[in-house]
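Example record for the data management plan.
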Amino acid sequence: MSELVRHAEGLWTASAPHTFFGLRLGTRMTVIRLPDGALWLHSVVAIDDLLADEIQALGPVRQIVVPNLYHHVYVVDAIQRWPAARVHAPAAMRRKRPELRIDAELTETPDPEWCGVLTPVHIDGAMLDETVFVHGPSRTLVTADLVENFDTSPDLLTRLYLRVAGLQGRVGWSRLLRGVYRDRPATRKSLERLLALDFDRIVLAHGRVLDQGGRAAVREAFRWLQPAATTGG
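Corresponding structural encoding:
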């Protein structure tokens, strides 16, 4: 059975189990085939030989993206499999993992080798230091941790967490982790830049891929980030 799921022309994902502080949240890698035929891997998961063969059947791996300061666990194995690939990561990753080879620091300037089909947007003001990407041809937002999308979970502890975090049955960000957004005005400006772009689908790391309604979902997910309304006296 294939480990890759095709969502659109030139866009696949691979999901994998992943436990975080006892919570079974899973994780997901995104694979995009660029117009020149090269592959762009985002937030790589643990890649066994079967999955590696599937990926290589799609094209040569030329780009590996570590999208934030937390989705780096499996990247060394991917670099060892595809040493010729160009590795992109946040600048601060050089301090967090000084042994990790980084060829390019993520900014909002698209890399020329992305063939003009990926628009990066850095989410400012957050400890995650995440850059998200809009894939123009498929109108897809590719993100690791901007939002999560869970209906439920077979694991009791995870279900309890989703309820307390306000995540069960909705696209959102955990109300328990809102403190990672330290500079809310800066984050709001980043979201304005993101929401000005054209996307409908959201491919994310934790939870179910959202096939449509992505822009409205992001706007609603961060309604809590808006400044409180004031009333005149």
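Summary line stored alongside the record: The radius of gyration is 17 Å.
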